[in-house]
Write a structure and sequence with these properties.
The complex is a heterodimer of chains A (about 260) and B (about 160). Chain A contains eleven helices and three strands; from the N terminus they run H-H-E-E-E-H-H-H-H-H-H-H-H-H. Chain A is elongated. By secondary structure, chain A is mainly α. In chain A, helix 1 packs antiparallel against helix 2, helix 6 packs antiparallel against helix 7 and helix 10 packs antiparallel against helix 11. Chain A has a three-stranded antiparallel beta sheet, covered by helices on one side. The longest helix of chain A has 28 residues. In chain A, strand 1 and strand 2 form a beta hairpin. Chain B contains seven helices and no strands. Chain B is mainly α and about 160 residues long. Chain B has a domain of about 110 residues. Chain B is elongated. Classes of the chains: A mainly alpha (about 260), B mainly alpha (about 160). Chains A and B meet through helix 3, helix 5, helix 10 and helix 11 of A and helix 1, helix 4, helix 5 and helix 6 of B.
Chain lengths: ~260, ~160
């Protein structure tokens, strides 16, 4: 039997855990499964209702006489698979080793304080990835080099804008315009490959993770969160198309219709 | 069959998967598995489309089914949830170009409302690209989820210490 304060403290922690998972791009059924498992490890029973922007959590004492409910907003964080992996492992560790709340909290604090990969390395890898994508679409090495440069500029612009809390839709329009504008310099060197270069230069902006998570949620029965994720991704794709269409309009005399 | 084509398809897909995956901060130990899965999945799709003349959606399904199965096996070894491996591995197969061409066709359709011939052409293009986008994204996620439904006990406990 837990006291009211103990129950509240446990509920606060499970809320923080669940919102961090939800905000980091973990699909809905895993968030539920992990949170319920963590609650069981901390000797309470958890019931969750998940939405894209908020979570409603009810924690019950094992005796069933005491319960505590909380509604908490989900922060919109960048996708982070390391958190997905580490926090899933933490819930199993707590479950198997019967950790106490303070032990779990301590491990949790250590896991989320992990440093990120060097951001310049990330930017170079993304640019390399998009350049190889250009190769998959049949571009030659000139197109690949131009796509590398375009992606590099585009990702810096996107990350810096998001860092300065600019709206995500505006960021996507601006980055797509910048990347495709740089890629359109291929027109001067090799007009045949310019279309492939311009077409692939913005593909790093496609929100692939929310698209896949949305469908996974829907096939697993979490239709509401699934559609929220898909709608979000759809709006981002709409924005990057608008950014790209500015470039196409500028050079419409030189580019064939690429549709 | 041209082995060089298949190998280069897999190779560039692996680099693309690492590039697109690394934005989402996967654990570093998972990167080799992600690259391997992406290469195998993308090469399977390439072969099915080129040599079996299967359509892009069905080929994507088989590619992602293999990625999903592989993510269960490698996830147990790496102590990673299978989504952490298969979502980045699927990213190179996302039909991004078809997705924005759908929006383009819509814009061009609106630009040419008074011209019946152009209007119908853009309408066709919008449906063509839109249907491919939706069905490929759906098939990708569904294909990778099938192993989760088949082996749910295993796929829910990949990060559990001591068993895999």
């Amino acid at each position: 039997m837990k006291s009211y304060e103990e129950l509240k403290e446990t509920a606060d922690f499970i809320c923080e855990y669940a919102t961090l998972l939800m905000g980091s791009g973990v699909h809905t059924s895993r968030v539920t499964r992990n949170s319920v498992r963590l609650a069981e490890a901390l000797e309470v029973k958890a019931e969750l209702t998940l939405f894209q922007t908020s979570i409603i959590l009810t924690i019950k004492d094992k005796s069933g006489r005491l319960d505590y409910s909380e509604t908490i907003n989900v922060p919109q964080l960048p996708v982070n698979f390391e958190i997905n992996s580490d926090l899933s492992a933490l819930s199993w560790e707590a479950f198997d080793n019967h950790l106490t709340l303070s032990e779990v909290k301590e491990k949790y604090a250590r896991l989320i304080a992990r440093p990120a990969i060097n951001k310049w390395l990330v930017r170079i890898l993304i640019s390399l990835g998009n350049a190889s994508f250009c190769k998959l679409f049949g571009g030659n090495w000139i197109a690949m080099v131009m796509v590398f440069a375009a992606t590099f500029a585009g990702i810096i612009l996107k990350q810096e804008m998001l860092h300065r809390k600019v709206n995500a839709y505006i960021t996507n329009i601006a980055s797509a315009f910048a990347a495709s504008l740089i890629a359109s310099a291929t027109l001067l060197l090799d007009a045949v490959n310019a279309e492939v270069a311009i077409g692939t230069s913005i593909l790093f902006l496609i929100p692939g993770v929310p698209l896949l998570n949305g469908i996974i949620d829907i096939v697993e029965g979490h239709t509401l969160t699934g559609f929220s994720r898909l709608t979000n991704a759809l709006l981002l794709i709409l924005c990057l198309s608008v950014g790209l269409s500015f470039t196409i309009l500028l050079f419409r005399d030189y580019i064939q219709w690429i549709g | 069959m041209d082995w060089l084509d298949i190998l280069s398809d897999g190779f560039f897909a692996a680099i693309a998967a690492i590039g697109f995956g690394v934005i989402s901060r996967p654990p570093l130990r998972a990167l080799p598995s992600i690259a391997l899965l992406a290469a195998i999945g993308h090469a399977i799709r390439f072969c099915l489309m080129k040599y079996v003349q299967l359509d892009i959606a069905t080929s994507s399904f088989f590619g992602s089914l293999v990625i999903g199965l592989g993510s269960l096996y490698l996830g147990g070894k790496q102590k990673c949830p299978n989504t952490v491996l298969f979502i980045p591995a699927l990213l190179p197969m996302i039909p991004g170009m078809y997705a924005y061409r759908t929006v383009f066709s819509l814009l061009s359709f609106l630009n040419n409302l008074s011209d019946l011939a152009l209007r119908s052409e853009y309408m066709m293009s919008m449906f063509y690209n839109g249907i491919i986008t939706c069905s490929v994204v759906f098939m990708l996620a569904a294909g990778a989820s099938v192993p989760i439904f088949l082996f749910s006990a295993k796929s829910y406990s990949l990060t559990r210490p001591g068993r895999s």
